[in-house]
Protein: Phosphatidate cytidylyltransferase
Organism: Vibrio cincinnatiensis DSM 19608
Amino acid sequence: MKQRIITALLLAPLVIAGIFFLPLTGFILALAVVTFLGFWEWTQFVSSSSRYLALLPSLIVGGGSYFFLAPQLTLSSELSSIQIGVVIIGATWWIFSSGLAITYPKSRCCWESSNSIRHLFGLLTLLPFFWSVIFLRAEHFAVDSFHGAKLVLFVCLIVWAADSGAYFAGKSLGKHKMAPAVSPNKTIEGLIGGVVAAMVVGWFFADAFSIQFSSPFVMLLTILLTVVISVLGDLVESMFKRVSGIKDSSNIIPGHGGILDRIDSLTAAFPVFALLYFLF
């Protein structure tokens, strides 16, 4: 625990500084590195004679997506139909995969034996996350370069608040398991505690960051759905690790495991938040 806290205290300021002070190109490059490492860790969930070979589909599809989605980033304050489509695909994937996690192990037989499906799951997990973050960071970039940074940090803050609230509520009040076959420690009480903590933090920072929602109800609903999906996103990665017999996706972050272990909630939260934010 001590190592986890020290690492978090060192990484958090670096992440926040990167969100706010990297130029858009630099931010895209930094996030691309994080996403690449996530894809590298995902190769453990795919049966292949070589992890390098297993990485190729992700590199090809990911690289191709850049040429379709990047050119329009700062040319308009609204997303194109293709960009909206990516966000919708990402949000839909997390609703579907959450169902897989909740119904595990019954759902295991539907995808376990197919390498193609596992590759697809990796692409659906990481590419919509990458682009959702970029779309939010580029929002109104030509008018206010910090507006998108506040949006990205806002999502991070409500997810981090939900994680902390769920931990303490679950530890002190948790009795009813969410998905014991996947993660025995996650409880309904923890989820409720996480949602409450996220709403409090979200209400405060929406005002502090001048983030506009069409109404307080829409803001709270957006936070609620984002946080619930983020918690389920954590379960989804736990499911893949359990099937693959892996405890941590890697040991690249001292005390925290791998990249996927740290961004699992965020990979689910960003597409859902982006969809709700841009549509409503």
Summary: Residues 1-279 form one domain.
